[in-house]
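dumping these here so i dont lose them again. two proteins, back to back, each one seq then C-alpha cells. dont judge the mess
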Amino acid sequence: MNAPVVGQPGGTAGLRRLHWNPWVDCPGGAAKGTDVSQVTSTVRGPRASLLDTETPTGDQQAEVIVVGAGPAGSATATFLARYGVDVVLLDKARFPRDKICGDGLTPRSVRMLARLGIDTSPEAGWHHLKGLRVYGGRVGQLDMEWPVLKDFPNYGLVCPRIVLDDLLAGNAVEAGAKLYTGVRVTEPVIDATGHVKGVKDATGRVWSAPVVVAADGNSARLAVNAGRSHDTRAPMGVAVRAYYESPKHDMEWIESWLELRDGTDLLPGYGWAFPTGAGTVNVGLGMLNSSAAFGNTDYRELQRRWLASTPPEWGFTEVNRVTEIRGAALPMCLNRQPLYADGLLLVGDAAGMISPFNGEGIDYAMEAGQYAATAIVDAKSRGFGTSGAELALNNYGVVVKEAWGSHYRLGKAFVKLIGNPRIMHLCVHYGLSNRRLMILVNKLLANLTDRHDGDVYDKIINSLEKLAPSG
C-alpha cells in the first residue's frame, strides 16, 4: 500500500520503510522496546511508524493545526485532508506508542473505521467479535450478539492502541495530512484579541494556523491554557488495564463484569476482558466517581485481587501478565466546553467525549473528527476570520450536542443510579435474568439504535433521548 512521505501532503512517493516492522511484516509480530512489547497483532494497514518523520526547522504555517494523533486527531486530519485542507498533525511521541485503553471497538467504532477507509475484514487481520458476554447476578453469564441494524455493522473488534493509533495516523498521511512526531506542544499562541492563532512547541517553534484543533487527550493542556475549565459536576471515571497471555485470546465475545468479587467479597467497580485475537487479552477494571470508593482505592491491587478469583484456566494470573498494570482518567459527558471558541476546537478526550454508559470514547472521538472537519471546511469556504466562518465553526458544538447530548444527559442519571450499591446490586441480580430488558440495556449502553424505522427497543430508547435535553 503506497503512502506519501510524512511532511509531503498529497505526495505520491512510495511508503518509505526505515526498518523491519513486525507489526506489518510478520502476522502476530510484536513492537519491540515498548511497554506492550509482548502484545501482538495481525492487523494490517498503513503505519505512521514506517514513515520518515523529519521535523522541519523554523516556524511553520498551515490552514489547520491538529495537536494529538490519537483517534480524534487522526480522524480530524484525515477528513480535512480529503476535503483539500492544508492540515498539519502533531504528536509529542513517536510511533508506535501505547495509550491506556480497553482497546474494544463496538459496531459504532467499526462504522467510523469504515468511513475513514480502514479495511476491517478478517483478510486484513482483524479479529471479529459477535457480541457482549456479561457476568453477574443470578444468571452468572449472559451472551448478547450485537444487534442487526441499518445504521451500524453487527460486529465489534479489538485492536491494541499501539497498533490502532499507528494505523490511524498513517491513514491520515495517506489522505494527505502532514504528520510530525516528537513535537511537544507547550502552549497556544493567542493574539491581542484573545484568538488562538497557532501553537508553540518545546523548542520555541511556532506552528501558525487560523484554526487549531486540540486532540491532546485527557490532560487537555491546550484547552486549559486557553482558559477552558472542566465541569466538575460531570461524571468522571478511572480505569486500569494490563495484557495477559490467555487461551481466551481468540474468543468471539468481549466480556464485561458488572460485579467484581474477591472470593465471596464484593469489590467496587466493573471489569472487562477484550481478546486481541493474537495471544493476549486486555483485562482491566474501571470505577466512576459516583462510587464511594472512587479516589480511595489502590486500583492496581484491586485488579490483582479480582483476577486472583477468576478461573485459573483463563490465565489471568501474575505469571501470565506481560505488561504493567497502568491507569488513566476517563473524562465524560462533554465536561470541557465550549467545544469551539476563538480559533480553538476541542475533540475527543480533550472535550470529555467518553460515554458514561460504557466508558467508550474511541467511536465518539472519530465521529467528532468528522463533525469538526465538516465545520472547518465550511468555514474555509466562507473565508477564515470572517463572521461567516465563525458561524460555521460555532456550529460544530451544536452538531455534537444534537448527536449525543441527550444520550449523555441520560448517562448522567445512569451514573448517579448505579453509584448506589444497593440499586446496582438489585439491577444486576434481577435485571440480567430478564433477556428482553438486557437487549434494551445493551443497545442503550452502546448507543446502537436505528434512528428511523427501528424496532421496539430502538423506539423506546429514541423516545427517552428525545425527552432528555441535549444542551
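---- next one ----
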Amino acid sequence: MASDRALLLLSAPAYAPPMRAFLSALLLSACVLSTVFGARISCAAAGVPAPSEPRMVQPESLEQGFIIVVTDAPGVASSEYPIILASNHNGWNPADQKMKLTRRSDGKWQIDLPKPALDSRMAFKFARGSWERVEVSADFKDIDNRQLPLVDAAALKPGEKPIIELSVPAWRDQRPWETVQFGVNPYRKITVAAGTIRRLETTGGGAVTARDVLVWLPPGYDDPANAARTYPVLYLHDGQNVFEKLPGVPGEWRADETAAQLIEQGRIEPLIIVAIPHAGAARASEYLPVAAVDGVTPRADAYADYVVNEVMPRVARSLRTRTGPENTAIGGASFGAVVSLHTALRHPGVFGKLLLESMPVLARDRLVLRHFQAPGPAFPPRIVIGMGGREAGPDADARINAAYADSASDLRALCIARGVREDNVLLVVDPAAVHNEDAWAKRLPGALQFLFGRR
C-alpha cells in the first residue's frame, strides 16, 4: 500500500538527511490527515506518536493527585482571610487550615492535593474562613456545590498532575444589602410553616462545650386541650439545616413543613422534632466513631453520650415527651447517619427507630461498615435507610454511584442480621438523587410515615 511504500522509502539508507527530513515531514502530514479521514498510515512506525484516544476521568481517581488554581475575581481574599476549600472530604470545614490555598505571585490562589482518602467524588465550595464569607455568583446569589471537571488522563505524562483552573466571581460578605452578616446572631428568629420553635441551651459534646438545640413543637402543642398530652420525639443531627436554609448549603430538610402537613392529613401522629446543631469545624470529629477521614480524631463516643445524657434529659424536663424506645427516634444524613447508628448502639434500648440517609461507608475499605459489623447489641427494631443513585455526583463514575447504592443494600442486610425484621427495614434508593438536603427532604415524608405513621 502507499503508506507501506512511504515507510520503505523513509528507511532506505540511500537518502541524504535533507531528503529524509522532507519525507518525514510528508509522512507526518499524512499521519495527521489519517486521524481526520481514517487513512491507514502507521504513525508509530514513522517515529510519530499515534494520537491517543481521550480518557476522561475524575481528578480524585488519579494516584498522583491534582492541582487547583483559583482566580479571586473581586480580589478580596487576603492573608487574614485566605481561600479555603470546604468539602464533603473535610467535614465541610470552611476554616480547615490543611485545605488553605496559597497565594501565588500572579495573584491567583493554588492548592496541591494528593489523591483523596475518601472514595466519593468531591463536592466543595470555596470560603474565606467561615460560611459568612463563602463564594456566591456574580449577582450575589447562593450557588450549588461545585464538582471537579473531568480531566483527560491520556494527555498527562506519567506522574503529571492536572491543573484545574477555577474562578470565584463574588463572595457573600460583599452583598450590598447585608449590613449585618447572617448567622452572627444565634438567636435570630426562625420562621416555620406551622408549629413553633424553641431553643434549649445544652452543654457538652465531643468538641464544643455549649450549643442551643432547636426544638419544633407541632401545631396545638400549647392548646389548653392538649395540656396533658405527651409526644414522641425525633432527634436529628446537623440541626442548622433541619428548619431553614443557611448560606453555603444547597437546601434544608423542610422538616417543619413536612411534619405539619402529614399531621394535618392524619398520616402521622403529632411529634416533637429536636434539631441538634453540628460543631462546625469539628463536625466530622463529633460524628465519626472511626478514623475514616485523614486528620480527623473520632469523638463520636463523647457526642453520643452528650445526646443521651444531656440533650434528652434537657428536652424531657422542658417539654411533654413520651418515653420509651418505641417513642424515640434518632436520625441524620451522611456523617449524621453514622453517628445516629453509633449512638443507638452505644446506648442500646434508648432508641427504637432510626433514620439513616446517605450513609457513607465506602472509604478505607468500608471501615465504617466494618465498625458496625463488629459484634454488639441488636439494632433498633424499626429503621429507614435512604440513598441516592447519584450520591457521588451526576457526572461521577457510574461504578462509584452503583457502589453507594449497593452499600445501602448491604446496610439493610446488616440490620436484618442484627435482629430487625425484614418488614421493619425500609430501603429507599432514588436513582436520580444526589447527596444533599433537597434529596433528604424529598424522602422525609415517606420516612416519617414509616417511623411515626398511625397504625
